[in-house]
Design brief:
This protein has 232 residues and is of the alpha+beta class. The strands form two sheets. A six-stranded antiparallel β-barrel has the order 1-2-5-4-3-6. Strands 7-8-11-10-9-12 form a six-stranded antiparallel barrel. A hairpin with a 2-residue loop joins strand 9 and strand 10.
Length: 232
């Protein structure tokens, strides 16, 4: 579990690709390796990855399965690219962002960039939904949360008809993450708020069939109202 508050920017220093996936080496990462152990989870551009090898001098390795390469933008990273890094949340720290699993849902494309004083407004477009990857728009609401490249951000606008959503980066955030440097047309990793997914699944389960478990409760409420009005 992560918070979406980026701790540090690392740098891709080596990429080894084979049929099974990819080994990624991230350097310039000493500040987040002081308490690292083999098997620890680190969110890399929002994807929860397992540390397979590291040196506290400043580098660590992670393995990317083909599913991760298909679902995220990590397969497009090149040596020298910067990456957003966050260690798994410790139980004693303040929870300043929102619940982030590090399970990227899809990628979106940077559609627009526009300055607003010292801040930066960004607009993103989601891909066309498919049977295997339904639309994520039901989980995106203005003033709700979204994770972009591992960063917890607040949605400022959502346009279902254009499949777009907007966020604003204050100057401090622009300096701490890679998102402010991404050009129009670049891909970003998206994870929607998992709470919305659980709520949707619970409601569907409750309403299955002829109203499911909620039907008796609804019927009781309706009967009470009708009785109070003298209609039954």
């Amino acid at each position: 579990m992560f918070t979406g508050l980026i701790e540090h920017l690392g740098t891709v220093s080596d990429i080894i690709v084979d049929a099974g996936g990819c080994t990624l080496t991230v350097s310039d990462a000493a500040p987040i390796l002081v308490d690292c152990n083999i098997g620890d989870s680190i969110a890399v551009n929002g994807a929860c990855l397992t540390v397979t090898e590291f040196d506290k001098s400043g580098w660590f390795k992670v393995w990317l399965a083909n599913e991760t390469l298909e679902r995220t933008d990590l397969g497009e990273r090149k040596v020298g690219d910067q990456l957003n890094l966050e260690r798994a949340m410790a139980p004693h720290v303040r929870f300043g962002g929102h619940f982030v699993q590090g399970h990227v849902d899809t990628t979106a494309t940077v559609a627009e960039r526009s300055p607003d004083g010292d801040s930066l407004r960004l607009s993103f477009q989601l891909p066309e939904p498919t049977a295997s990857r339904p639309s994520l728009l039901p989980y995106l609401i203005p003033k709700g949360y979204v994770t972009i490249d591992g960063t917890s951000l607040t949605l400022t606008a959502v346009d279902d008809s254009r499949r777009t959503f907007d966020v604003m980066l204050i100057q401090h955030t622009q300096e701490k993450i890679t998102l402010s440097k991404k050009a129009v047309g670049s891909k970003v990793n998206i994870e929607v708020d998992m709470v919305g997914k659980y709520v949707e699944k619970s409601v569907h389960a409750a309403l299955e069939g002829d109203g499911g478990k909620l039907r008796p409760l609804i019927e009781k409420v309706v009967l009470n109202v009708l009785t109070q009005k003298g209609l039954v």
